[in-house]
Amino acid sequence: MTALFCTVLFCAVVAGCNVGPKYNPPVATAPPVYKESPDQFKEADGWKVAQPQDASLRGNWWEIYNQPELNALEDQLNIDNQNIRQSFENFMEARALVREARAQYFPTVALGPSFSRSRTSSNTRTQILNGTTTSSGSGNTTFQQYTLPAEASWEPDLWDKVRNTVRASQYQAQLSAADLQNVRLSAQASLAQLFFQIRGQDELQRILDETVKADKDAYEIEKARYETGVDQQISVVEAQTTLESAESAATNLGVARAQYEHAIATLIGKPASSFSMPVKPMVTAPPAIPIGLPSQLLERRPDIAAAERRTAAANAQIGLAKAAYYPTLTLSALGGTEGSTIGNWVAWPSRFFALGPTLLETLYDAGLRHATTDQARGAYEANVAAYRQSVLTAFQEVEDNLAALRILDEESAKQQQAVESAERSTALSLNRYKGGLVTYFEVITAQSIALSDEVTAVNILTRRMNASVLLIKALGGGWDASSLPSFVSKSASQAPATHADDAGRR
Fold first, then answer.
1. CATH code at 215?
2. 27 lies in some domain
3. Residues 236-278: pLDDT tens digits?
4. Which end of the chain is more exposed for a tag (fewer CB within 10 A), N or C?
5. Nearest-CA neighbor of 235 among 218, 222, 224?
6. Which tens digits make up the pLDDT trace of 452-505?
7. Total domain count for the chain?
8. pTM, whole model, 2 decimals?
C-alpha cells in the first residue's frame, strides 16, 4: 500500500507536465498594400461591390444570381455529389479517431472466465503435496479448474502523451471538416460555372439560329434575283456560302453544350444519359458581390483553415515525439477466484490477486527518438510554409478575379458599343446594296463583322459570370472558420451544421 501511495503521489506531481511546445497559430504577413489600405483589396477600386446591407456572403451564395434552376441543382449537388459524400465520411472517421484517442485517458478492464479439464496419462500419476510434485507409474487422474480472473491496467498521462494524441486527433478532425467544406465549395463553384457556360451556349445558339434564318432568306432573295437576271451568279454563291458557314457554326455549338450537361450530371450524382437542361439563353449580368475586408479572408477560406489545423496537428506530434524521452509508468492489477469445483469456485479462500506498478525507460535506441523529434519539427515547419503559401494564394485568387471582373466589365461596355455600331453598318450596307450602289459582298462582310461582335459579347458575358463565381469561391463562399467543430467536451462533437450531414447518411 505504501508503494501504491507513492506511485499515485508521483503521478499527481508530474501529471501537469507538458513536454511539447505550446502551439501558436503561424503568422502570415499580409502584403504591404493591405497594411496601407486594410479596408479594401488592391483590385477592388473600380469594381462595383454590394451595398452595406449585403456586406457579407451567405451560406447559399449561389442564390445571389436569382436563378431558380441553379438553386435546384446546387441543392441536389449537396445531397448526391459523391466527392462531398466521401469527404463527409472522412470527417466522420476523424471524429471517431478523437473518441479513440480520448479512451486512452481511462484504465482498461478485462474479465476472462475460463474452465479447463485435464487427465494424466495412465502410466503417470501426479500429486502435488505442499508444493512438491511426486509421480508414480499408474494413474488416470482427472483434474478440472474454474477460474474467474479480472485484470485492470492504466498508463497515467505523465508527459502529455495522451493529451497530445487527443489534440492531434482533434486538429485532424477539424482539418477534415475544413476539407469537407473546401470540397463542397469547389463542387458548388464548378456547377455554377458549368451552368453559366450552358446558358452562354444557349445565347450563342439563339444568335446563330437567327443568323441562319436571315441567311436563308437572303439566299432565297439572291437566288430569285439571279433567276430573273437582276443579279450575278457570284452573289448567289456568296449567299449560299454564308448560309452554310452559319449552319455549320450553329451545329458545332451542340458539342460543348452536351459536354457541359454531362459534367453537371456527374456533379449531381446522375448518369449523363439521364440528365438534360432546357434551353434558356442567358440575359443576366454578374450581381454586386460583397467582398468584405482583406483581414477577414483568412477566416473565410476553408483551405486556409485546413492548412492552419494541419500545422496545429504537426505541433502536437512534436509533443508526442518528445514524450518518448521519458519513462512510461503502467499500473496493473489482477484478481479473481479459482477452484476445482463450482462449489468452491467463488468461495472466499479461492481468491487470488496481484498488483504493482511497472516503470519502463529506454536507455539506448541508437538515436531513434532524436531522429523522430527532428522529423516532427521538420514536418511542422513544412506545414507552416504551406499555410503561408495558402494565404498568399488566397490573396492572389481574390485579386485575380477582382481584376478580371473590373476589366471584363469595361470590355463588355465597349463590346456592346461595337455590336451596336456593327448593326448600324449592316443596315447601311443592306440599303446601299438594295439601291444598287454596292455588291452583295459588302453586305456579307458587314453581317460577318456584326455576328463576330455579337459572339464576342456573349463570350465576354460568360467570362464575367464565371469570374464572379470564382471570386465568390476565392472569398470562401460564405463559409467562416467559426463553423469548425469544437471539441471542448469529452463527448463526440457534432458535425458541422450543413446539408452534407444528410448527404452522408443517404
1. 1.20.1600.10
2. no
3. 888 888 888 888 988 888 899 999 999 999 999 999 988 999 9
4. N
5. 222
6. 999 999 999 999 999 999 999 999 988 888 888 887 543 333 334 343 343 333
7. 1
8. 0.81
